[in-house]
Every structure is written in structure tokens, then in C-alpha cells.
Hints:
With 310 residues, the chain is an alpha/beta fold.
Amino acid sequence: MIDQSCENILVGGLEAGGTRFNCVIGYGNGVIIASQSFSTTRPQETLAKAADFFEQSISAHGPLHALGIAHFGPIEIDRLAENYGKILTTPKPDWSDTDIVGFFSAIFDVPIAFQSDVNVAAMGEHYFGAAKGIDNFVYITVGTGIGGGVFVNGQLLHNRAHPEIGHMRVPHDLTRDDFKGCCQFHGDCLEGLASGIAIENRWGSPGDGLTKDHPAWELEAHYLALLCVNLTSCYAPEKIIFGGGVMLQKQIITSVRERFLKMMQGYMPSLNTKTIEDYIVLTPLDGNAATKGALLLAQQALVSPAKSLK
Ligand code: ZN
């Protein structure tokens, strides 16, 4: 729940994506009062830019009382783990083992909360977006990579690690799609077949360079429908929400719904042509789910620091 007493306390939020860093300051109710965005380059350079933004914000607006970091994964979020706050093995050059929480806590003496970017985006959807009032849902981002955050009974689903939904295996019919897949770990996992990078590698052009009727989008809808079948089978969520750069191709969603219903074969009768438009949806937050969620995360660190700090 949002703690009303903290809604007017200034906090910082960072959406640290694999492609861009989005820094904001604002309040736990999702109101952003200043922001800055820049490309993700080498770790020290990128983190220093983020720290500069927060230091300048403090000079201009007063002290920040907590920091919420929504970071691209895989990351260690178990506070009891020796490498808590660090990035784990990632294909992104130079970023493996980077100590994110250590970097910021050496500069800012405030509670710092650390969570995966997709989990924080799911928090943003829960409080401010398509999942307001819904306690069981999945948020999926389809961009450079594919990731997902799961809410169960109003809580994020994570134990020692955050889910890695993008790396689930899906049927890959080589007679229909002979692209081998581009995941460095698994080849043709979902991310290897349907991420923005996969689209670019398969078709020789980034998605935003392809026409709306390009066959890329029907194939993309096929893989995302398989994802929705798997998510429905595993979690029986009340809603599946899609965000991320690839989903700016909004025509995909209609085909995902149709294909999903066909694949389900009426197995869950509550999911039908009448209800499908409320079940598989696009985010209404226009790319702000993770930054708003990061402010919320920061506020939670302030209210319950023991839950967020090592
Ligand atoms: Zn993979």
C-alpha cells in the first residue's frame, strides 16, 4: 500500500535499462518533478551520470530521502546474499559483477531499494496503471530483451531470485521460422526468438523500420501468444499487461489475443472473445511504469528500511 504520510517526501528513482538510464525525482504517489535520460554505456560512466543527476536535483530541490533502483537483470536481490546489490553474469559487456547498490550507497546516505526493472514496472502497473485494483497479474516488457514481473495476491513473486520469464522455452517450428535465435545462453528461448534484437537479426532491420503489415509482426504475435498461454497455465492471472519498445507496434496485440484464444481451445471458458480485450492489454503508462514504480520502491524503503536494505 502507498503510505499517505510519505507522499510528500522527496525521493529518487532510477530505471537502469540495458539501453537507457532514466533518472527521476518525485514522490511515492508517482508524481515526477524532474527527470533525465541518457544512453547506457560503460558502468562507471553511466552510474556517474546518474549520481550527478541526483546531486544536482538535491541542490535544486532539497534532500532526497531514499532511492529506488529498478535495474536490468540478472541482479542479486536477496539481501542475505554476499553479492546483494550486484549485477550477475550478463551478456552486456563490462556490466557483470558491477556493484550497483555499493556505488550509490557510497555517495548517498539514504535507504536504497534494489529490484529488477520489470518487477518495478509491475509495481508501477499495480499502483498507477492497468493493474490498479488487481492483485494477480503479469507484466511483460518486450524490448531489447524480454522480461516479466508477476504479482500474486498483491505481492511481487520472488524468492531468492526474480523470475526470468523471457528465457522460457517455446515451441520453435524451424519449417516456419528458420532463425536460430539470438539468446547468448539458450539460442531459441522466447527472448532469443521474439525480442527486439531477435526481430532485427532475423529481418535485417529494427522493428521500427518494418512496415505494419510486415510478416515479422504475425510471427511476433505467434510467439507472444505462446507466452500468454504459458503464463495463463502457470499463474491463472487476472490480466497480462504488455509494455516495452516492440509493443509500440500496437497492431500486434489484436493478433496476440486471437492467436491466444485459438491455442487455448476453450480450455479456460472464462477467457473468450468477450473478455479477451480486458485480459491481454497494453500498458497505459507510456514507458513510465518503471520510473513511477522506482519512486514507489524508494518510498517503501523509507517506510520499511529493514525490508529493503542489507
Ligand atoms: Zn535465453
